[in-house]
Amino acid sequence: MGKPASSGRGDPETEHRGDKKVKAHSDKESRPRTDPVLNFERWKKKHIRKQKKMKELRKQLKKPEWQVERETIGRLTMEYEKINVNEIMRFSDFPLSRKTLKGLQEAQYRMVTEIQKQTIGLALQGKDVLGAAKTGSGKTLAFLVPVLETLYRLQWTSADGLGVLIISPTRELAYQTFEVLRKVGKNHDFSAGLIIGGKDLKHESERINQINILICTPGRLLQHMDETTYFHATNLQMLVLDEADRILDMGFADTMNAIIENLPKKRQTLLFSATQTKSVKDLARLSLKDPAYVWVHEKAKYSTPATLDQNYVICELHQKISVLYSFLKSHLKKKSIVFFASCKEVQYLFRVFCRLRPGISILALHGKQQQMRRMEVYNEFVRKKSAVLFATDIAARGLDFPAVNWVLQFDCPEDANTYIHRAGRTARYKEGGESLLILLPSEVKGMVHQLSQRKVPVKEIKINPEKLIDIQKKLEAFLAQDQDLKERAQRCFVSYLRSIYLMKNKEVFDVNKLLLPEYALSLGLAVAQRVRFLQRIQKTMTNESLINQTDENKDGRKHVTSSLTNDEVEEFRAYFNEKMSILQKGEKKSGEKDKQNLANALDKEENGEEEKELEEEIRQKNVEKVKESEVQALSATNETSKDKVISVQSLDGDEEDEDGHDADFFRVKRHNVFGLDLKETTIQKKSSNSSIKKKATKVTEAKKVMKRKFKVNTKVTFTEDGELVQQWPPIQKSIVNKTEEEDEGPGINLEKAKERLQEEDKFDKEEYRKKIKAKHREKRLKEKESKREARKKQVKAQDEEEEAFLDWSDDNSEFDPSTLPDPDKPRSHEQTSDDDMEDEEGETRKMGGVKKRNRNAGKEEMISSHKSKKAKWENVEPLDTGLSLAEDEELVLHLLKSQS
Ligand SMILES: Nc1ncnc2c1ncn2[C@@H]1O[C@H](COP(=O)(O)OP(=O)(O)OP(=O)(O)O)[C@@H](O)[C@H]1O
Q: Is the model more confident about 732 or about 533?
């Protein structure tokens, strides 16, 4: 039940409770003093109050921010001089701004690479730097860090305009540099812009003046310099040339010079590349002032990354596509880049491989793509874990695709430098990678030698023939179905050949060594199309060899006339005689110019129309070249002759001059036709010691020739019966004067010669008449024969018709044999035929009566009778009078007149 109420005192429980209460109370009282939470709260309040006071105090004491920055900059600048390269391990070891360091750390860049270590300090000190280091060694940051620090140091604002200019050879590389800059420079307030073309110029022009750091390609920059009126670079502090050698290789040397001329002289210049060529040094001399050369891997054993495994395979041209396909099939989980020599190869093989579906995603990157597509492809390939990128050399420089396992060089690179850059797309910054170079047997020697000279360790590996998948048949099938693809294949074919032809190193690239039909087949084409420019080039080469021969002749080693026929010389002489002197002066220059223009034209990466244009251009040029070479050959001949003529002139004196050019010309002419050596004539003249200077007439020259009894070249042909016919010089056919001729002494009797000619003329005319008559007779006989044949056919056809009618006959009326002609009746041939005709006619008529079986019977009869009549007239043989047609006509007219 209920518990008794406690009395209070003496109740131990209560007391106890009471104690507890007290205790509890005392606890409560003591807590505010010892509770850490409360204590903290109190401390916090106090601290905040204190802080506020301090802040206010500091605010009162604080320097302006710009002043603080300035002090920091001052401190940093002081430290630039103390930079000791050997002590630098991290970016933070450099005296860099907090903002830059923060950006680097956030992008996970802490430790410096060798090129960064060596160049950042120099650049911070304000020196011009020419930096070279292996691919993937971090050159981008080596110049981006100084870029940021320079503008920071100068406290650059958007109002100051353009402060730094970074020039890249390709749009992709410019874009990539821009992305890295955005990453590491995000804590700075500078504006950065990308000017690479492919976008609206006006849109770029509107923004260009607000940009502090401009990343651009050379062509587009120059366009802005020329066209954007308010664009200027007067405040420019720093110029960076990334992959400078490539910029120059791409033919931007003039553009670069023009750009540099537009820039202020007082600036800092940094120039970076993985390879340094002479042209870069030339550019450096132009644009860098007392530069510091930093070549970090100069003494390295190899010029390519140590982590890069490099091999090459020797393969015939027509096997290359199958090799590529087989390679991709066995590397489906890898990320690879395949380099080709031309856009058209990339375009065609990309399409074909997409159709073949090798089981890996394929992308294509080349200069013919639109800018947007190029960017898309670039980003897509960056993202992909396994894919293959078919690319031209626009992807060879500087691009930093992450985790590329393989670089395959499908077409031999132009030189060792291009090889290094292509292969360098893998094995970047401490990563591993593999490179495979496909070489044609003709390319091996030259290329491997070049690579070993440039310290590139490549070793040969063999293709496993069992793993080689032949895809030629598949390509043929694709092309048979798809006309567009076929045209692409054709363009690819031409484009590859052109790329080989344009290569400078002819030891490695010899277009004449390529097996064209096999290559065409490997592309899926049924036949190797005619490559006109190659044919013309070959022609030109032949002509050039002719010119060389001529040159040799000039030196007196060979005689050019031996390679030119007399007729050719005669034919061209008249045409070129006047122009010779002018052309002789200009030929050397124009030849060089032609070559240059040809190369320039070929250099264009063309579309179909351009290709045609190009071919036409080459055709024109070659025609010109051929002409020119002919002129050269001729002029050389004439030069030789002139030399000789001069020697004659010196003997003959002034009188020779009076005779003028004709005499010279004649002499040369005779010389060429008869193979006369004028030197000999000269010597002869000399030896004759004749002091009387006579005018050399044509007759006297001819007489001399006759005296010397030179044998004229003869042209002999065979008739169908195997008879020999002399065509040149024409042999005398008339018998007249022949005996006289035999009796003749030396020299020419002009009167007799004239007579003989007249006789010859008569004889020829007679012969000609006979020939014509014979021809006419032959023609008539042929006509007769054909008419006879026609008549026979007609008779036969009528017989068949009759038989058919008989077969089809409905009524049973019998054939009356009495209607047949009497076979015993004697008849002449003509009668026979005529009677036959009449009989046939009558018979037909009878038969017609018998065979009437349809409504059109009457009509048929009429037609058949008409036919018979016609045949009758046709079969009347013309009388052979044995006269010519004209004579026949005359005879007929005469007869008609006499009849009337
Ligand atoms: N200090 C660093 N720490 C870590 N990674 C770095 C550093 N510097 C550069 N890298 C990385 O190394 C890779 C190669 O750098 P970068 O593209 O600058 O090389 P590169 O020398 O310019 O090559 P290329 O000659 O091919 O243009 C990049 O992925 C970059 O992010």
A: 533
CA-based Rg of the chain, rounded to a whole angstrom? 50
Domain boundary among 295, 318, 337: 295
Q: Nearest residue CA, atom 14 of ligand 1?
A: 136
Distance 879 CA to ligand 1 centre (A): 104
**Angle formed at CA 228 by CA 226 and CA 233, multiple of 5 degrees:** 80
Average pLDDT (577-590) is: 36
316 and 360 co-located in one domain:
yes
Co-location of 336 and 419 in the same domain: yes
**Which residues, 6 or more positions from 791, have their beta carbon under 8 angstroms from its beta carbon?**
871, 874, 875
Q: Where are the alpha helices (DSSP H) in 675-719?
A: 678-688, 698-708
Lowest average pLDDT, out of 289-298, 426-435, 870-879, goes to 870-879
Give the CATH number of the domain where residue 465 resides.
3.40.50.300
Kindly indicate the confidence band of residue 306, based on its pLDDT and cuts at 50, 70 and 90.
very high
| Ligand 1: centre distance to CA 139 (Å) | 6
Instruction: Count the alpha carbons within 13 Å of 223 in the hemisphere toward its beta carbon.
Output: 15
Say if ligand 1 is within 6 A of residue 663 CB: no
Q: What is the pLDDT of residues 92-126, one digit of tens each?
A: 999 999 999 999 999 999 999 999 999 999 999 99
Report how far apart the first and last C-alpha atoms of the chain are (Å, whole number). Answer: 181
The whole model's pTM is what?
A: 0.58
Domain of residue 157 covers 67-295
**Ligand 1 centroid to 340 CA: how many Å?**
25
**Is 274 a pocket residue for ligand 1 (Cβ < 6 Å)?**
yes
Distance (Å, whole) CA 125 – CA 153? 12
Atom number of ligand 1 nearest to Cα 133? 21
* Closest atom of ligand 1 to CA, residue 430: 12
Q: Determine the pLDDT at residue 544.
A: 66
Indicate if 184 and 285 belong to the same structural domain: yes
User: For residue 428, how far is its CA from the centre of ligand 1 (angstroms)?
Assistant: 7
Strand partners, 407: 337, 435
Query: What is the per-residue pLDDT across 84-93, written as a single tens digit (0 to 9) for each?
Result: 999 999 999 9
Asked if 163 and 123 count as a contact pair (C-beta separation under 8 A), the reply is: no
Per-residue pLDDT reduced to its tens digit, 350-365: 999 999 999 999 999 9
pLDDT score, position 673: 29
Q: Is 273's C-beta closer than 6 angstroms to any atom of ligand 1?
A: no
| Those residues with Cβ within 8 angstroms of residue 409's Cβ, 6 or more apart along the chain or in another chain | 338, 339, 419, 422, 423, 435, 436, 437, 438
**Cα 328 to middle of ligand 1, angstroms:** 27
